[in-house]
Structures are given as C-alpha cells and as structure tokens.
Protein 1
Amino acid sequence: MSGIRLLDRHVALFSGSLRTLLRRESDRRRCADSPYAWLFQPYMGEELVALACTSTPTPTSPVISLAAVVLSQQQVRTSRAFVLTLGAPGQADHASLRRHHLLCQAGCVAAPNRDNLNALVEFIGNRPIVGWQLDQRIGALNALLRKRLNFALPNAQVDVEKLHQRQLRRLHPEIEAPSSFAQALACWQVPAMGMQGVLGEATSSALLYMRLQRIMAEAA
Amino acid sequence: MVDVDLSQLPFTLLDDEGRDHIRRGIDLAYFDRDEIILETGQGGEFVYLIHKGEVAEIDPTLPSSTSRIGHYTAGDLFGAISILNGKSRYRFKAEQECLCYLLPKALFQQLCRHYPDFSNFFRQSLTHKARLLTEKRAEGGVTMAGFMLAKVSECMRAPLLMAAATDIASAVKQLNDSYADSLLVETQGKLGMVTKTDLLNGLVLGGSAVSSPLDELAHFNLVTVAPEQYLFEVLVLMTRHKVTRVVVLEQNVLKGVVELTDVLSYFSSRSYVVSLQVEQASSLETLSAASQRTPELVKALMAQGVKLRFAMDLLAALNGRIMSKAWEFTIEEQYRDQSCMMVMGSEGRGEQILKTDQDNGLILADDARWPDLLSHMQTLTDTLIQLGYPPCPGNIMVSNPEWVATVSQWKSNIAKWASERDGDSLMKLAIMLDAHAVAGNPSLLASVREELFERCSRDELLLSYFARTALRFSTPLTLFGSLKKPQHGIDIKKGGIFPIVHGVRTMALERRIQATSTFDRLDALAADGRLDRRFADDLGEALALFSELRLKQQLTALETPVGAQEANAQNSSRANRVVVQNLSSLERDLLREAMHIVKDFKQRLSHRYHLEYS
C-alpha cells in the first residue's frame, strides 16, 4: 500500500472534531464489556463500506433510508448490499414513508428496533465508512443508534466530498469547485449508477472513491 | 439490486425472474488501463458485462500484429466461454479504464441449467467464433471446410495413355480391363482424349473399322489444370467449357485425369446437378426449373463455407449459360452471328449471386438485317423474366430500343456521353464499362469497348467527374473511427460496396483493363502497379465481406414466406441494411476494419482524381 493511502486512512480516523473523538472514546469504554466491543477495534483489512443515507424528520421519529455496500480495492460487492428503510410503519407519517419508498427505492420498511440496527452495525463492522457528505448525512442515523444502542457509529469515516474538493484544489487551485454529487461524478467521469436510489448513490460514491484513490496514487 | 440494462441478447432469453436473479447477484469491478482482467489458462470465476470502457481479447501465442482477436465495448459480454471450458483460452486486457459487472460463476451455471436457450447462446457463439478463427488462420484465406481445400491432386486418376496407332479393338479391351471410360493418346507431342462415347460414335456413325487407329477419333482441344489447383476450380471449368473430363498437367507432363464423377463424389453439393440440368434443358420449362434451383445452390454453397469469390464465379458461369440457352431458344440461328447480347451492371461484373434484376443490351453488326428486331427482343426479355430474372427498374433491357444499337451507333453514343458528362451519361458509361458478352458474337462488344477506352481513358477531366460518384455516400464511421449504429442499420451497399466497385471501375477505365469483375480488376491493377498488392487484397477482402453480409440478408429475406409484391420491394432495400447491434462482436470488428479500408480507398481516389474541392 502506498504511503499516501496509509496516511489517508489515519487522517480519516482523526479527521473528526475533538468532540467526536472524545465521544468515541467514551463510547468505547462504555461498550468494553458488551457484544459491540469489537466494533471499536482498529480495522486491519482492505475493505471499506460505502454508506448512503437519506432522512426525513417527522414529529415522532425520523424516517431513514440507507444503503451500505462493501468495496475492496477493485470490486464493489453490490450483490451483498444492505438496503433498509427505518420508520415505524403504523404510526409514522405515511406520506413521508411513501415518498421514501418511491424516491429511495430502498427495500422493505422496518420499525427501527434493536434487531435491525444490530444487523446494520454487524454488517458495517469495524470497517471504515465512505460516503458523500458523510457528516451531515449520518447525523440522524447516529442519533437513532445512540438512542437504541447507546453508541454512535465508531468507524473511521472518509468523506468523498472532501477528497473530491481537495483533489480539485490540487489540480486547479483558482477554480471554485462544483459541489453537487452529480457534478462531482461528471467531473471524474464516473458513471452514475441509478442515481435516484440510495443503493445507486452508495455504489456511485464507492466508484468515485476508487477513482479518486487511483488519481491520488498516480499523482503521488 | 443494481440498475443494469438487461434488454440485450443473451439476457432477453431469460424471463423476469432470471433477470432479477442477475440484478441481485452481480458485483461491480473497476479495471485500470492495460490491466489484465483474465489471463490465459486462468480459471474463469465471473462472466463480465462491460458497463463502460473497452476490452481487447488477445492470443498471446501469436505475433503482436495479429494477436488481437477480439474487441469488446460497452454492453458486450465476455468470460462466459472461459467458464464453460473451465479455463480461459485467451488473455483479456482492459484497453481503457473499464467498469464491468461481474456475474459469479455459480449464478451463471445455475442460469444455464434453468434456461437452455441462454446456455445454447454461449455454446453457439463459441462454435461460431471457432469457425471464424480457423477461417482466418487458414493459409491464403481459404476456408477450412474440407470441401474447399480439396486439391486436384487428391482426386485425379492415373491416366490411361496409349499409342496413337493402337487399333480400336485393343483399346476397348484395355478400357474394360482397367475399368476406365476414357483414354489418352499422344501424337506428335499433342495429347488427345478418346471416350467410350467417341468409340461408339466412331464405330456406329463414323464408319470406322475395328482395326482403324485411335487417333482419328481423338479430341485434341483439351481442358487442362495443374495438380495444385483447387477441385472447385475444376468444377467451374467443367461448367464453363461443357466437358466432363479435364487433364491434369504439371509443367507439360501428364499427371492424370479428373472425371466428373470423381468431382461429384467429392462435392455432395448440387452445383453440378444444376449446371447439368441447364445443359440438358431442351425447352424453356426445364430451363426455368433449373434456373429456379440456383438460390438453393447458393444456400448450399454458403452453408459449406465456400469463399464468396468462388461462389460468384460459379454462379456467373451458370447465369451465363442460362442466358445463352435462353438466347438460343428465342433467337434464330441466322441472327446470332451478327449481334451480341451483353449483360451489364452487377451481372456483367459477375457479382450477382441471386437474381436481383436483369441489365442487358444488344449490339448489332453495322450491316445487320433484322426485320422483326423489336418483337424478338420483347420475347427475349419476357423469356428472361419467366426464367426468374426480374425486370430492371431502370428499364435497361433489350426490350428498350435505347439499349439496342449497331456498333457505330454505340460508338457515337459513347462519344456523346463522354462529352456531356452529366449524371445520366456518366451512369451509362459506368454501365457500359461493366458489359460482358453472354451470347452472340463477342467481337462486337470488344470493338465497342475499345472505343470506350479510346475516348475516356486519357480524358483526365472525364475521369475526375467519373470518380466523383464514388464519394457520393459517406462511410458509416463516427469521428472516432467506430461504426455508426443507427437503429435501422447501416446501408452496406452505399457505404461499402458501391465506393469499392466504382472506384475500382474508374481505375480500370484509366488503365484500360478488360476484365469486368471487381476482383479480377483488382488483380490486374495490382499487376499493373496502380495499387500495391496488399491494398488490393484488402479491398477484395472488404468487398467479399460486404457482399457476404448482404447475401445473408437476401437469403433470409428469401426464406420468409413470399407476401405481396410491395413487401418484396421493401425487402430489397432492407437487404442492403445491416443492423450493427445484431452482429457478433467479431463480425462487428471485421466490418469496422473493412469500413476503414473503404475510407482509406476514398482518400486515395480523391487524391488521384483531384476530388478534394468537388
């Protein structure tokens, strides 16, 4: 592995604010004896997880559609993707549920209970997370996790948008970078894979990440 | 579930459930430029469906100039055959950055088990590809079909040579002893042939005695071939010269004899049967029956993988015989010598495999006397229509008085066309250039042609006008050199066949080449030094490819039940269109290369005839 990628991983690990760092540390201590302890172990493998999240706040609990896809050096394992919409089917706002179903094409709707949140964190494991505007997007998910499982996602996070901005600045320092996801994909000639759905977004961000990694490796 | 376009073959062979399985089971992979996706001998783990980028299929055992045997672009599929075979025979390498969908081996095998059509698709394209490859590799571009590779030397019999002074009685005895039915005699260094029929005729009708010497019965004008010639050419020769035996000579030394029955035992195709029927036809009905069988013959030849050029030769010989038979039936003996019937257009070039239309004309001697000329010519045209040659839409037929003229009238016509140089005149000149005599007195056509060369071949201005037509239709290539892919297909006649045929025709006019077939013209031009040999060969191959694609379309159009007449008219224009999307990727590759050759040829034409600004 090239030096730049190693650096990337560690920068990603410490890229959050001091507050998130402290929060993660306290989470880790609290969960030291729970079955979740392994999630806080540093990850030594080669895989990452691309995560896309869309949430709509409702009076009771937010409706969250999310998709997670594992990617390695070369492949995006779309065949083993994790796609779910979290929202209480009975009481929650029906209109926003339906909208999520149509817009995000995100599989079945399930009430946010311990089981499916468990499945999600088990799927992600301690692998680093990759995503577009990750900080903003997973806020709602983290809040939900903290409520139900007592900790937020502890994983190292790579925000593809930041990578994209950084790479653009490196190439064209004087240009104001375009910031929408579609523009970024077009900019690096990454094909958009079914942009509407959350799975499409996760896949595209995975491809964009792979692409940017290669460009950086070339530049280094 | 991934959004992937499964509306193409082979996925259309699955039902919705199968396609859903695929969508659920595929992964994505990203390959860098020049990365090897699948190495030779490596076991296949995935079927790759390209979403973006290009992949080359490489045979690493070949020298690098010819090692690229396949090319895949977005939407193409590869790796399936590696799974079926257990390991990959070739190396697949990304030519650009590629994004592929990976269909895992287990899922693919499961789909093959559940959907037999799907599995057959891959097995078919495997055999199809193998056949194309072996054809490509065969020396000299000859197809591997055993049919075509048979040489004369494999099929000839030992000659039965007897002294010229032998008497008939001992000759018959010798013939019976050796189970032969013909023998050769040699007198004064010349070879002659005596067949059983000759013996019979000589004894019964000619009044020869049993003791008279053989050489008074022998024929000395023999058709000869060399032992390394293809047997197929022998068949063409036999058809052309109406003989059933040819003599094999190697550097003027007698090697053997090839008989019709020997050839027929080699070819179980119907070619000779049809030509025999044509020869034996004694009335219009039987001739018409024989003529109706030619499409069947073409199909048999194509199925056996005969090289198109040979098939064209054979068909041209057959069509010529049919025409001249029709001529013999309708025109009285006394007129035959003072007139010459010529066929023009594709038929004149010998490139009309199926009977698409009749273009013909008549040349009369200057002193000809022919009272009922018009009605005779109308009968001739009607006879040809009856024989299955549809009338020419441009009315270039002997029934049209414009295409019946004496030698001097033709000459003045040519002079007029050459000086006018408008579109119509140029077209008529082009038509006349391809004229080929099929019946009557061929020396009349020769003198008209001589005049044509005399008038035109040195006239640079006329040549330039003449050549310009070749550039009239654009080559269906995109700016980046790949094939255009319009929905209704590309017009292969306008885009490929016409520029080659017309360009070669122009050069032949300039160099005064007598041959009318495009292939022969190319050979002559290469011998003349006007074109280099390699380029001429490439042009010939490209033309053969286009004609073959077109013929395939025409044959499938023939197979569809014959509906109304207007449907037929539509078919003829559709037959020229090739839908690129339906071709296999190897064929697509060949077509693209061929189109590039056409493009190159057009550039040479515009350079030679100064067409840059026209």
Note: Chain B has 25 helices and 20 strands.
Protein 2
Amino acid sequence: MEKRIIKSQQTGDSCIYVKHPSGLDIYICEMEGFSTTEALFGTKYGSINTMFKTNADTEYTTVPEGIAHFLEHKLFENEDCDVFELYAKTGASANAFTSFDKTCYLFSCSKNYKESLEILLTFVQEPYFTQESVDKEQGIIGQEIKMCDDNPEWRVFFNLLSCLYEKHPVKIDIAGTVESIAKIDAPLLYKCYDTFYNLNNMVLAVAGNVKADEILEICDKCLKPCEDKGLETVFPEEPDSIVKSECVEIQPVGTPLFNIGYKCSARKGYDNLKASMEAYVAAGLIADPSTELYQQLLSEGLINSGFGYEVFNGDGYFTLIFSGESSDAYKVRDAISQKIEEAKINGCDREHFERLKKANYGSLVRELNNVEAVANLMINSSMEGVEPYDTIKVLSEMTYDDVMNYMKNELSPEKLAISIVKGEA
Amino acid sequence: MIYKREQLADNIGYTAIVDKKFKTDVLSVKFITDLCPETNAENSIAVGTLATSNMKYKTLAELTSKLASLYGSSVYADVKKRGDIQVLSVGASWLDNAYALENEDITSEMLEIVSDCIFRPNADGESFDEASFNIRKNDLLDKIDAEINNKRGYAVSQAFETAFRGEPAEYSCYGKRAQAEASTSASAYKAYLELLKNAQIEIFFVSPQENNSVKEKLAAEFAVIERSAPKTYRFTSNSKAKAAAEYAEEKLDVNQSKMVLVFKSDNEDKEALKLMSTIYGETPFSKLFANVREKLSLCYYCASGYINSKNALSVDSGVETVNIEKAKEEILNQLEEIKKGNFEQSDIDNSLMSLDNALTAVGDVPSSYIGWYFGRFCEGDSASPEEIAEKYRAVTKERIIEAAKSLVLDTVYVMSPKEDK
C-alpha cells in the first residue's frame, strides 16, 4: 500500500494519499477543530462517457445518453432497502451527483462517520437493478428532465455548448432525453457499472473530523479488490471550429439571460489546470468589476452585478464563459470581444494582474477552511490528474506573459458564440 | 469556541464568536426593520449602495481593486425577510492576518473600509453618488423582474403572498417594481439615514482569535449617531388560517407543474412542529419523499419546511400536471397518518439524528455561526445548537401528533403549463 503526505508549500496545509491494494485512490484530510466529516466516493464516469471499451472488448460500446446519471439514481436502491434508510440510522446527510465527467456518492455528518463510510463503500459496490425498478426510474428522471427544461440558466448554458461543440457529448444534457433514457434497461446498466465502477477508476476523498487510520481500516474491510480492466473511453473527433455563433430560445423569463463562450483547446492534467487558471485570470483582466469594460457596461445598463465569468473544462472540452442578464447581450459580446482584441495588441495593466493573483490566492486559502470544499478539492484534482494543492502552486508561478500568451493564442473571435434565453417580445 | 454577546447601546447588540480553526474573519452588521411596502425597495437599494463605494473608494472599480489587493476580501449587502421583518445586512469577509504573504494588516484595513461604507458612504449629505446608486437600483429592478426565472422559488413566493395576504410577510423583502423605479439617490439616502437612526442593529463578528478592535471601532462610530428611542420588533407573528383553504392557480409556458401547500398552526410547541416537519418531509427518508416520490412516483421533489417566524409549514413539489390532484391527496394523506400516530419510534429517532447532524455542523462555517446566533436572538435567547438539540430530544410522540393536528391547510398554489405538455 503506497502512502504519502501531500503538503502545500504555500499554506502549510496537508492531506494523506493512499493507493489502496484494491486499486482505489484514497485522499484523507484530518481537519482539527472541525465537527463535520465530508466523504465522496466517485468514479470517473459522467455524461460524456458514452463510448468505451476494456481489454476484454474488441469493439467500442456506445450507450444511450444519460445512462451515467440513470445509474447514479439506481445505485441508491439495494436488494433489501433504499440506501437513505441506512443513512437514516447514522444521521448522515447523503446525496449523489453526476456531472459531465464524474459520478460521486457522498455524505456529510457530524457523528458516526465510520458507520456512514461503511454504508457508502458497501452500497456503491453492490448494484441491484431489476427491469421493474428501471421502468419506474424512467418516470422520475423524465420529470427531472422536464424540470431542467424549465430552468433558463440550464437552457442558456446547454444552448451555448451546442453552438460550440459539434460532436463532443458535452453538449448533451447530463440526464439525457426522455427518448434516450427509454433505451436503458437492466443489462445495459450492469454493463456500464462493471466497466466504470472498477476501483481502479475510482477515488475516495474524506475530510474533516476524521482519523486516517480509522478510515483505512474501514477501507480494508469493505473494499473488494478489482482487476484493472484497461478501460478506454473515446470521443468523436471534435473540430477546432464552432458549430454556429448564436442561439436564441424563448422562455417565460423576467430578464433575458446570456452565456458568451470562447471555445479553447482542451488539455489534460497539469497543463489543463495551468490553462484554466490562465484563462480565468485573463477573463478577470478583461472584465472583473474593477475594469473599464465592466464599468462601461454597467453604466450603460447592459449588465448588472450578476455578471461573471468561469472556466468550464474537462476531457475534450474547454470553454471560457461570460454570463449574466442583459437586454442587449449582443452589445455585451461585441464589447468583450473588442476589449480582448485590444488587449492582445496593447497589453493589460500589470498591477491589475498582481491584484488578481492575490485575490485568487485568498480564495484558494479560504477554500481550505471548509470541510466540504476540501473533500471536493481532493476528489476533483485526483480525477483531473493533478494534486490537491497544485492550484495554489500554479497560481504562485503564473506570470503576466503566461496570461497574455493564453489570451493571444486561445481567445479567438472566430471561436466565439452567444446563447440567449429571453421572454416573448 | 468563545461566544460573547453585549449591548453596545440601546438596540445595538454585538456578538463576538472566536473559533481558532478558521482562516477568515467575517463581519455582519444587520439592520432590522419592519417589512413595509413603502420602504422595502428603498431600504434594499440604500443598503446595496453602501456596499458599492465609500468616500475613500468612490467607485465600485476603486473599491473592487482595493479588496482584490487585500487577498480577495469582500464587502457585500444582503436583504432577507424573516416573518414580518426586513433584515438588511452589510457584511465583509477577509483572510486572517496570519495568511498574508507580506505581513499586511488585512483586518485593520478591512475594518476601515467597512466602517467607511456604513458611516461615510459616497454621498453629498443629501443624496448618494448617482453612479453607485444607479448600479444598485438597476440590480434591484432586474432582481424583481428575474424572480420568475427560478420557477420553484417563484411558486413558493406566490403561495406565501396568498397565505399571508394582509400581513407584512405578504411582501417581498425587495419591494415592488414601482417603488424601486420611483427611488432616487436622494430618497435612498434618506432611507439610509432612517435605518441608521431607527433600525434595531445586531452586529456579528467571527474570527480565529479575540479582537476587540472591531467592537471598539463600531461602538465609537455608532456613538455619534443620533439614535431614536428603542422600538421592539416582533420576530415571530403567527398568521391566522383562513376559514377555507384558498386556491390560486397560474398558467405559464412551463414543462413541469409546481404545487405549494401552506398550512398554519396556533400551537406554540415549536420544537414539536419542527420535528414533525422533519418526519413529514425534510429528509430523503421522510414520509413525503418515501411515499409521494419514491413509492408512488407522483413528484420529482416534494419537501416540507417549517417557517418558525410565522408558525406555518409549507410543502413544495414539482409534479406532472396529470398527477397534481393525486399528489395533493397523498401529501394530505401522509399528514393524516402522522395525526393518527401512524409512525414509528424509528421515524422519530432518525429525524432527531438528522436534526442533530445539522445542528452540530453549525460551528464549521463562520456564516453558519452568524445565522444560528441571529436566529436565536430573534427567538429571544442565546441557546447553543446542543441546547436546542436537547429540546428536540425531549419531544414526545404525543407532542408530534398534537403539532400535526394543529396544522390547518390555508393555501394551495399551482403553477401549470399553458397547454398540456
């Protein structure tokens, strides 16, 4: 069993990494003084993983959209009872989520963490599906899909992804469609489970009021060793270009919403982390509340304080998104694009760059003050192929030239799209 | 953890919470006043403007730049409704000095900034600076217009509007669009002066080590304000149930219907009502989740919540249009089952564990500490989470049944698609 301590040179925070003999990667952060425990048990399996094969397969298998999310719902039922009934006896608050590239099962609790951890590790390793329960779940997930269709923020985001990505499954709703989930049956769920819920493809992250030795003891007891099956996931080849530059949807909304996105080069591991920090700081140099652009848009009534930006990236996709509410989002898009083009020629304020570095450092340190955030940091970084405190390291090493080069090389007006959701005229 | 509450002056309370595990300091200055249709919007804009600029940092850009240089510190404004009361907060959070890379005194600088925002806003003595005011006025107008964007939240607020009609709780804490539109930099500044003079004020400061400078600074600032005679605010005000439940329906271009039920109670046994609500619909093992969603697949979500300040209980659900009636019947049926005592000791034990879990977690986040002790202040005590957990543990099955029996259905609000979808 490989065991080592990972430490942040910048803040002094540390956590423990263990490569368990079962194949599982385990991260533990003992946080003195905190009462709660947060545990996440996740697999590198999300909505985008619709095409895959293992060493045993000769051909790639393609599965219906939404199946990872469907599987998440179904794992909460075991042969004897609903998993929530088990957690009810420990007092833990349990949940799960499926994102584009991962599915995580989690709990938070302030007492009985060992019992809750046993429940978590056990139920995720014991799937039980019947056709009857699959049929019932199709109805529940169908309702979830309808609910998301009524969420304008969700719609404006997915419409943007459809503008930017031609083939990559990131453009598909995580829950799939009513039609796609109708194709899911019990054997298909077992096939996906056996492929992706292999401990070699999974991570456990536990933070808070815990003792590492106690956690490892429970892991030794509950984890069933897995053979690495050589899982490979593939995506259709995605062109560099975008599909279309705009999409407008009509919904009952009081204020129109927009997402403006630049399609950038997708990367992996440390390069991906570095690029995401550079893109984020670049966006701050262009449009954070201290910038001339932000003030101009605000004074013209084109944005409000809800305006913001984020980096959205994963396996095979990378987008810098500006979002907010506006009565004329096209003007916002044009102003952002123009400001970026000017910055490529004239440069940006170096003092502003230094302020952004400091502000981001402060945010990252604050994150280490929160049990839930630390557990999420550990599992996310592991699944992205980096170490938990690499973000702070990347930030401390980042230079002004790195950010300007990113802006010049990646933020191209030809790869810019806008998505708007507005009410009927 | 050290908890200490003291009076800085009449109607000005100061609570310090010291917990060495934190890396941040969090300050919240709360202005408490009546919810009132004439002043809600004006107050919201006024407090919002305070967090936008001050006499030293005269624009949002200048203030943002300064906060970024202080390791991404923040100054924010927040408006909430609590029963019939409007609670307006100016808050700030910053990295503790121990984590400053160049030994900066972040705390002292932030204290100056927040004090300047509250006591020396960018104004000429009669009006707020027009640019700062307009940012917050436009924000508020957009916030009011955007309420419908979140269908679940919108459905709940519409149900409350019907349930509490004729009471201050009927109104949104943000006010109505017309009032926000009519607001000027002068009228908002007047509202600010009124709050400074008349509002009840509660200050909370959470930090990793004791620091009296915050208390001393704010006490000195408030000492020079001419305050009016103390007024007593009613933080809880029961609402009388209508003789017959009122039905409100709205058709929108949506895919999923929403149904919200509001019940009212005249039973003052609040611990029993909260525990009853937890058993009924606040957890994934509750009666509503287990039966209405899981067993009968009638709703995607169906959850209850106890509204302490109005002694009311709401059930909100996302439901397919064809199932609205069936879902309503089952929601009411599950309540009847509790009234009849058809639940197990394990339901009580499990719900107690869930409440205990949430209560113990209060001390892990600075803002939760503030939320907790402000809540207790409104209840008229300073009980710790553990003391309240003890009160829940003392609730008997009989008290839970009585709590359920006291609930009277007052309002049913349904949002459904314009056409069958």
Note: The longest strand of chain A covers residues 317-325.
Protein 3
Amino acid sequence: MIRAKDVRKQYGNKVALANINLNIPSGSIYGLLGPNGAGKTSFIRIMNQITAPDSGVVLFDNEPLKPADIGRIGYLPEERGLYKKMKVGEQVLYLAKLKGLSSSEAKSRAKEWFVRLEMEDFWEKKVEDLSKGMAQKVQFVTTVLHKPALLIFDEPFTGFDPINTNLIKNEIKRLNQEGATVIFSTHRMESVEEICDHIGLINNGKVMVEGLLLDIRKHYMNGTYAFTTKEQQTFSGMDVLHRDLQHTGHTATIKSEAYPSALIQKLAKENQLLGFEEVLPRVSDIFIDIVNNGPKPLNS
Amino acid sequence: MKSPILLIIQREFITRVRKKTFLLMTLLAPLLLAAVMIVPGLLASMPEDDKSIIVLDEPSILVPEEGTSQFSLEYLNPNEFDLETGKTFLRESDKDALLYIPSGNGWDPDFIKNNILLFGKEDIGIDLQRFVERQLEEKINQQKLIRQGVDPEVVSQTKTKVTIKSFTMGEEGNEETSATPLKMGLGYIAGILIYFFIFFYAVQVMRGVIEEKTSRIVEVIISSVRPRQLMMGKILGIGLVGVVQFLIWVILSGTIYAVVSTFIYPEIFAQQVPAGPGSPDLSTVDQTNLFSMLNSINFPVVLSGFVFYFFGGYFLYSALFAALGSAIDQEADSQQFMLPVTAPMIIAITTAMNVIQDPNGPLAFWMSMIPLTSPISMMIRLPFGVPIWQIGLSALILVGTFFGVVALAGKIYRVGILMYGKKVTWKELYKWLKY
C-alpha cells in the first residue's frame, strides 16, 4: 500500500527522517513505533502531503503520492480537535466535503455512522456542548467517513476514555476486515501488540526493524521459557525471572542458554511438568534491546 | 463536488454572518454613525445655559454694555463697592460671576488689560471667559484708538475681508473651481475607512487562524487541503463578510440620514446645507459652485481607487496577520508582533494631514508608493488628482508586494500552524521561511 524509498526530511539542522525505507502492506494493521521525537509524525505528515520530503519518494499503490490521494486517506492527528462553535452535523459534512464527498453522500454516510456509534442526538449540538468522549466519537467519524483505503492514527488512544478506546479498537478492526489498511503510530508499544500484525520501529529518524510482528518477536527470542508444574518448582542453578501461582499450577519464567530439549530433560528430573513454552519477547523489550545493542543480524 | 477553497470561503462566510454579534454590529454601527452625524446638529440647536455677571467697572470701560441673551451684565456702583465688598455681594446674590476691572494709576489701558479679574461661583466656563475677553478687548482697543486721536468708526470702516475664488488649470486649458476642502474631506474619510476596514478584518483573519490552531482542528483540515488554500480561503471569506457588512452599512446609514434629514429634523439640516443661489453673499459655496467643485473631482478614478486600495490593503495585511496568527498559540501573545506590522498603517494615518496639505509633495509621493502605507496615503491623495503613472506604479507595487507577501506568509503559515507550545521569535520566523 505504502512504500517509502530513501525518504529524508530535515528541519533546520535537525534530521527528522534520515533516508528511511518502509513497506506497509495492503490490508495490514501496521504499528509505526518509536519514542517521542523519533520521526513518526514527520513521516505521517509526508504521507498526508502536509509536508513534502526533502528527498526520496513515497509510493501509494506503487505510484508516487499525488494530491488526489488525499481523498483515499483518513487521518486522525495527534493534535486533533474540532471547531468548537460549529454544530456537529455541519462540521462532519464540511470535513467530508473537503475530502471530496458530495453533500448528499456525506449526509447519508454520516447518519449511518451516527446510528452505529449511538450518537444520533449530537447532530444539532455545538461541539463545545459535547463531553470529551462524545467529541472523540465525532472526531473518529470524521476520520473514516469518506471510506479511506488507508487509515492513519497518530497516538489514537491518548485522551480517549477506556470505553471509547475499546469501541474504536473494534471499529478499526472491522474497517480493516472490510479492506482498509491501518497505520498506528504510538510510543506506547504495549498497546499495539494485541492489534497490529506488522510493525516498524523508528528511532532518531532511522528504521531499526520492520516486518511481521510475530517474525520480529520470534527473531528476538532470547532464551526465556515459561513452565507450569504441579508442585512448587526447584530450579537448581538456574536464573529464575518470575514465579507465580495460577489455577493451572505453579508457573515460573527462567532464562537459559541451553537448548529447549535439554532444558526440559533437566527440569523433568526434579519436577512434574504440566506445561512448557518459549516466551516471545515484548515489543518494548525488543525496542530497548535494539536501542542499547543495535538491531540483531538476521542470521543469528 | 466543490473546490476546497470555495468550501472554505463558504464556511468562513456563513459561520461569521450567522453570529449574533455580526447582526448586532451590522445594525448598530449605522445607527451610531447616523448619531454621530445627527447629534451635533441637535446639540447646536439646544438652548444654552444663561449666566448673569455682575461687573465692578472702576474705569467705566464696559458701561453701558448689557451683554447678550446668554451672558447678561449688571453693574455695581464703583463709589459704593470695592473688590472685597463686591465679592461678598456675589456670594449673597443669585448671580453667577463677578468681573472686576481696576482703574489703576490714571486710566492706563496697558495696566488695566493685565489686571482684570473674574470670579465665579462655579468654574468659569470657557464660553464665558471668551465672551468677556472679546468684549473687553474691543472696548480697550477703542479707547486706545481715541487716545491716539483716531476715530474708531473710521477704523471699522477700513476693515476688509478678502474672499478668494480659486481655480485649478486643467490640462486642456479649462479652468476648474478649486475644491480643496471638499477634496480634503473626501480623501480623509476614504483613507480612514480603509484604515478601519483593514484593521478590523485583517485582525479577524488572525483570530480565525489562532482559533483553528488552539482548537487543534488545523491538522485535520490541512490533511485535506493545502495550507495555502486554507489561508486564502480564510482571507477571501472574511473579506467577503467585510464587503457585505460595509455595503449594508452604506445603505443603512444613507437611508437613516435621508429619513432623518427630510422628515424628522428638516430645519436642523437646512442650516447645514449651503445657502441657495438667491443669497450668494451668505456663503462662499453656492449651489452652482458646489456643482463645479464636484465636477473638479475625478470620481471614476477616486471610486475605483477606493475599491482597489480597499481590497489591496486588506489582502496584503490579512496575509501578514494570517502568518502572525499561525506563529502564536494564543491571542495574548500577539502583542509583540502586532506593533511592527500595524506601525506602517498608523504612520499613514498620523501623516494624513501632512499628505493633505501637500498632496503632491515628496512625503505624499513616497507614502503612496510604499505598499504598506499606500492604501491609505494614496487614497487620501486621489481626490486631489494624481498623475496616472504614479497611480499605476503604486498599484503595481502593491499587487507585486501582495504576491510576495502571500508567498512568504504562506511559508510561515505552513510551518506555524503545526507548531505548538513554542514561544516564537523573529529569528525563528525567518528560519521557517527556509523549511
């Protein structure tokens, strides 16, 4: 869907994007991750043609971005808001028309969304009379109303209350199933593990790692194993990270350089094993690892 | 599907025109303006406060002058009263003031003129003081003349008032009646109108930009339209509001003035209208004269100049104000940047009188070439007649500067609207031009 080739953006002396290459596959839910100031928003603004790259090119469906693509993108910026004095209905229609929808088309779609998200009675209200949660729903509707093929959410859940967060997560999943490609940009990496299938990690304007989330997590597995045993375990001479008691039995995670088969044999001698798995590292742990040690070479 | 810039213009226009404040301003302003025109006439026709003055006139200069209907004079006998008893008399009487004229040493007018005293129970009004001074000056002058052996009658007969009819030599050799006061008024009023229009509506552009920034909607919008489209749409939309409001004002003010002057207070306005041809001695401006005066002004040029500079000035300044608005987070921060931007306009207004006095002098010329002052300064000059090449050059500079400023302002705007929480300096703005 989106392919960035050697994209560079510089503000004064500050390099926001240092010749990055990214590939966001069609139909994916893609997590664009990185700490604040990594360059995520700079890249998003380039995709939205708010700014242009100093060099490099962004391909949208294999063609360089062109003004007409704006109508195929739905963007929820991190700094978002609505005209406070304007009525909700008018505002939704105005923003939809700016995206190229006709008046009647915009109206019928908006009404549909307002019913779906149970906000029919907002239509005649002014934005300043809405609660924060209500305004967030309106903002979401304006982002998706023109049925964009690409949805970009910049820090979507900051400021959303838990109920709306859930509601919107589900709506996003539904839109993705209907064919939309979704990009999430966030510095809160734990929040995307459950929803994203692809990720790209950016730091200091450079791409650290990119690909299928599962592949990346597998690639960064580091010999951490979780066990469940019937009785309290004994791990002679092993590095225990965590112990717990759950309804399935006693659990523990340990770290070991040994091969899994050898490890099982060793542990089975001392304990009655109920379960064993190698633990996938968390994205945030991978990120910290990469920042400290650099990306892990593919052949390791 | 409409072009985005039209949608933006439409939104800017409709949301503003629908506001209650717009309705209020649009209806109240002509009433205020009409009041400004009518109230002085009404006030002038109101009876004034009468004052009675007691006079202790030791040298008998004023005697037997009785004063006017407004200021009546009554005399105390100098043989029975002196200054102190005169004051006591004033305190106990219902009179308003005591005028004391000392005789001094042997009736010396130079001594008398410096030692006249006026006591009032309340503050002595400026009208009363002027009246007394005028009366005394006249009497003392007469006395001086008599002492020099000159008959005051002769002097008053030799007094002459000169009235000049001035003409402007036209290029084809025809002579036009010079209409300097009319041209002054016309130029000044037109200049002031442009000044207010620019100030009022360009600041609204800035406010609109700040509003979009503080409500954080701006990034949503510019993901659909180009920042420059948003800026131009805003400028055009608000300009349109201004034009509509201005036209309503002109029509309403004219109607109110016409109604009031023909039906409600015709007698007041009759006094202000120049006297008819039947009484040519009463006024230097009779009706045929007025007609030829009006003829001496090139109205097509003045009118089209007004429209051009009205819009040219507005567009130029609103682009500057839009850039300004984009650079700041809230209106309170705008002060430090406002002054340098508005200074040229203020200079144009404060030098208006100098431009009027010498409409073809170097100051007037340069002020009407510099694009930040020309909308006002050139407008002031136009009724006096300006060489066509100067108008053309000034217009060209204004239009050229407008495009330059829009290009620069657009750059600042593009960066500024996405900058939050940053105290902006001039240096920073300069850097944005290069992003």
Note: Strands of chain B lie at 51-57, 71-75, 97-101, 117-120, 167-169, 175-177.
